[in-house]
Amino acid sequence: xxxQPSPTPGTNPGTSIAQKYGxxxxxxxxxxxxAALAKYxxxxxxxxxxxxxxxxxxxxxxxxxxxxxxxxxxxxxxLVLCEENVKEHHLLVGHxxxxxxxxxxxxxxxxxxxxxxxxxxxxxxxxxxALMKSRPxxxxxxxxxxxxALRQYLDTNFPFIPTAKASAPxxxxxxxxxxxxxxxxxxx
Length: 188
What we know:
By secondary structure, this protein is mainly alpha-helical. It has nine helices and two strands.
C-alpha cells in the first residue's frame, strides 16, 4: 500500500477529502479545533509542539457518510498529532499513510505503540507494518458489508450522545440512497 505525501504545513487534508465526497466541515469545527489545540498542547505520539493538527481517530468524512456526523465534533474521536516532515505522526500513525483511511488500532495504538519514534522508525516498526496490511480502504473502495461494519464500530466504540436536536442518530442502511440530511448533520 502506497503512502500519500504529507500535506503542506498549515493545510488541512480532511477538508479536500470531504469535498471529494460532497461534504463540508461543520461551522462549529473551528471552535472545536481551537479548543482541542488549547487543551492538548503537544503531539500525542511524540510530545512535540510543532505543526500540530487535530486528528479524527475515525476521519470525519467517514463518520458523516455513515450518518454519525456527531463524531466530527466529539472529543472522544479527537486527539492532537504533529505533521512535521521528520515525524509525520498525523499521516503515519493517525491514517497509516492515507488520509482517506484510519488506524483501526484506535486511540490505544496511537497513544502507546509509536511514542517518540521518527517516521522512518515507524515505517520499520513491525506493528505499523501489520496495521498497514489491514488498513481500511477509502470510502469509494469499501464494500457494503465494510460500510455497515464501520457504522457498527462507531456505534459500539462511540455511543451516540443525545442532543437537543436528536435522541438517536439516523439509521444507516447503505442501500444506495443517501439521505442528504443524515450525511450533513452533526446533530447539534
